[in-house]
Design brief:
Distance between the termini: 16 Å
CATH class of one domain: Alpha Beta
Number of strands: 7
CATH architecture of one domain: 3-Layer(aba) Sandwich
Number of helices: 11
Strand content: 15-25%
Strand order of the largest sheet: 1-3-2-4-5-6-7
CATH topology of one domain: Rossmann fold
Order of helices and strands: EEHEHEHEHHHHEHEHHH
Length: 278
C-alpha cells in the first residue's frame, strides 16, 4: 500500500557533510527528543529528525481501523525527500525503530544502514504465550482508557516501559504533552500490531543493522531484540548498561558512541551495500 505524505511534517536538520542521518523518535516524543544524542555526535555530520504522526507539528493521517504502517512509511519517504532523496542512514527509537524497519522493508527509500534502539515489532514474538498476550492486553486497556477520557491513560504505557511512576516523575510540561498525544499512541499500538514483517524479507534485507537495548529492558523488549537478531543475519547487538527503555534520553553519550562506530563501519560499506539498499 502506498499513501500520500502528510500535508505537514516536523523536520529539523543540522547541515553537515557525508550521508544524512535521519532520526525517528518513538511515541511520546518529537524530533527534539534526539538533541541529547546529537550533542555527542561529530559537529560535521549531516543530521535530521522528524516527529511521527500525531506528534510535534506532524499531522495525523491515521484513524482507528485505518492505521496501516503505510501511513508512517509515507512520512519517512517525505522526510528523506527533504534530504534530497539519496542514501540515508535511518535511526529509530522504540516505535520509531519499528517504523524505520518497515520503511526499509517497504522499499522506495535508499538506505545505507539502520540503527534500532529498543525497536518494538511485536509480531516477531507473536508465538510467545505470555509476553505477546500481555502486550495485547496492555494496548487494549490503554486504548479503552484513552477513549474513556482517563486523564493519566499515558501512564499505563510509559510506566510499563520505564517502571512505576515514570510519568509522575516527569516535569509538568512533559506530563501535559504525554496526555495530549495519548490518542496518537493508541494508534501507534494499532499500527505496530498490524505490522507483520515477513521473516524471509528480513533475512534478505542486506543492510548493516545495529540493535541496541537497555540492560534493564522489559522482558518483551529482550525477546523482540533477540528475535530481530535471529531474523537479521549479520546484525550487531549491543546492550547499554544501566539503561531502560528510554535509553536515548537517559544515556545519550553511550547511545551516541555506539552510533558513531556503527555509522563509520556502515559508511565504509556503502559502495557494496548501497547498490542493493532500498
Amino acid at each position: 500500500m502506498t499513501l500520500a505524505a502528510p500535508s505537514t511534517i516536523e523536520f529539523v536538520t543540522r547541515e553537515g557533510a557525508g550521508l544524512p542521518v535521519l532520526f525517528l523518535p518513538g511515541s511520546y516524543s518529537i524530533a527534539a527528543g534526539w538533541r541529547g544524542v546529537w550533542a555527542h555526535l561529530p559537529d560535521h555530520w549531516h543530521l535530521a529528525a522528524t516527529s511521527l504522526l500525531g506528534c510535534g507539528t506532524t499531522v495525523e493521517t491515521r484513524r482507528p481501523g485505518d492505521a496501516d504502517m503505510a501511513h508512517e512509511v509515507a512520512l519517512v519517504r517525505a522526510a528523506v525527500d527533504r534530504l534530497g532523496g539519496g542514501l540515508v542512514h535511518l535511526v529509530g527509537h522504540s516505535f520509531g525503530g519499528t517504523v524505520a524497519l518497515a520503511a526499509a522493508l517497504a522499499g522506495g527509500v535508499k538506505i545505507a544502514s539502520i540503527t534500532l534502539f529498543e525497536a518494538n515489532p511485536f509480531d516477531l514474538i507473536a508465538t510467545d504465550s505470555v509476553l505477546y498476550p500481555e502486550a495485547r492486553a496492555l494496548a487494549a486497556s490503554f486504548t479503552a482508557a484513552v477513549g474513556a477520557g482517563e486523564a493519566d491513560a499515558a501512564a499505563r504505557i510509559i510506566d510499563w516501559w520505564g517502571g512505576a511512576s515514570s510519568l509522575a516523575a516527569m516535569s509538568p510540561r512533559l506530563q501535559g504533552f504525554c496526555r495530549r498525544v495519548a490518542p496518537a499512541n493508541a494508534l501507534d499500538w494499532e499500527t505496530c500490531f498490524g505490522f507483520r514483517p515477513v521473516r524471509d524479507a528480513l533475512a534478505a534485507l542486506g543492510l548493516p543493522v545495529l540493535l541496541v537495548r537497555g540492560e534493564a529492558a522489559v522482558p518483551a523488549m529482550v525477546a523482540m531484540t533477540e528475535a530481530l537478531r535471529v531474523n537479521l543475519p549479520g546484525s550487531h547487538h549491543a546492550v547499554v548498561g544501566g539503561a531502560g527503555h528510554f535509553l536515548t534520553s537517559t544515556h545519550p553519550a553511550a547511545c551516541a558512541s555506539l552510533l558513531i562506530d556503527h555509522l563509520a563501519s556502515a559508511t565504509n560499506a556503502v559502495p557494496s551495500q548501497g547498490a542493493s539498499a532500498r
